[in-house]
Amino acid sequence: MAGFCLSVWLLDASSRKDCLLNNLYNGLVVKEQSGFFWVEVADGTVWMCRLRGRLMEEAQSSDIAAIGDRVKISTVENDESGDVGVIEEVQPRKTTLSRAVRTSGNRGRGDAEREHVIVANPDAIFMVFAAAEPTPDLLMLDRFLVAGERAEIDDIVIVVNKIDLEDPTNIQTRFAPYEQMGYPVLYTSAKDQQGIQAIRNHINGKLSAFTGPSGVGKSTLLNLIQPGLARQVKSVSKNTQEGIHTTRDSALIKLSDGQFGAGTYLADTPGIRQLSIYDMEPEELDAYFLDIAEYVNQCRFGDCSHVNEPGCAVRDAAEARHISRRRYKSYRKLRVELEDALAALYG
Ligand code: GDP
Ligand code: ZN
After folding, report:
1. At the fourth CATH level, which superfamily is domain 2-90?
2. What is the assigned CATH class of domain 120-268?
3. Whose CA is nearest to atom 9 of ligand 1?
């Protein structure tokens, strides 16, 4: 009991007598700032919480809690300084959008990489690119897709914005392979307000994250989805510093427009641009290229890297254009990246 009062006492010495310990509540982490977590519970109340010390005792290879985590909290009601709580338990994550961070001082067993959770349990991720201005960086898209597949995110959506600026045939040539792989591709023009309802329909009732290079029209699209949304997102991320030794703010923004059902959240995800592929073996990569994965078991060698082995079905398929050559090039490039990263880690 004293522990709960202490947390209140730290915030407001005069109000510790008002401590009242309640039951455990299930909640959703909607904001993180400077080691504190804001947790929304079923009645809509948001409690500012710290982590129970016990959760921090063991060395962690991942963040203990992050936005999107489902948690159990104990709460202390307090008139003076507002309601506060303690995260007692973090539910196992269904999915995680994360990136690797290098640890500088190698303590203990010397793990040199750990997982930094960008958002836990996202239902959908929207990868926004422009049809033109800037020219779509398809290698970046391919890297995002690998990260999304690896994270087992159910709903990976490609948004192609600024379709008003490019010849439809060129747009088709670039993005048709992704449709053939089964990804939903939404074609939009924020300028002409085209395709916006399709995005709204897709985010309804879900926890979504938007990502993509700058200048592709994300802010403009967000404001069309709900007025003021881009500003809300920016106000969260403007103080954000990346890196493991600096604090990191991130938040889920609840979409409140009448057209969205309960549980519609947008993750503000600073740092997602540098999305790297966490803890992946080079041999795993082919499974996350859905177009390449189809051919893998036809290769002569079970451990085929699909780069220069004889009897490689993937290479044959690329030569015959059953797999887009550009996608095959992306695969080879990312494979080299993963091998280099591995060599740097253990070599
Ligand atoms: P963000 O960096 O991804 O958030 O991109 P912004 O929303 O700031 O948009 C970058 C620029 O592209 C702005 O000048 C927008 O007005 C413009 N823009 C956004 N969407 C469209 C579009 O569909 N068509 C055209 N032609 N311009 C757009
Ligand atoms: Zn092969």
Report:
1. Nucleic acid-binding proteins (2.40.50.140)
2. alpha beta
3. 217
